[in-house]
Amino acid sequence: MGYGTAEARQALSLSRNDVSKAVDLLHQGDPSNPSTSAATSSNKTKKDKSEKMKRKKEREEAFARLSSSIAADDDDNLNSSLAEEEEVLAQYQSLL
């Protein structure tokens, strides 16, 4: 087919050893496939990396907000009776 060993191996790796999918990747010019143009591939790779970094940062910020809003010593719910828990649950459901 005219593809190098490294390209074929990468396509197989990306397709989890599914030969049919690997051939499709090679024919389609997948951006992570080294047989595509270097400029297009590197631009898409940089874009993908920046998007991944952005999502990671957003997740970390969300986790930090969540962690800060939950006090470590906040055990109020452990002392609640079933009736009180039921009331809190009903209030919560009314907000949905």
From TrEMBL:
Region described as Disordered: 25-82
Biased composition (Low complexity): 30-43
Compositional bias annotation for Acidic residues: 72-82
Domain UBA: 1-29
InterPro entries: UBA, UBA-like_sf
Ranges of compositional bias, category Basic residues: 44-57
Designated name of the protein: UBA domain-containing protein
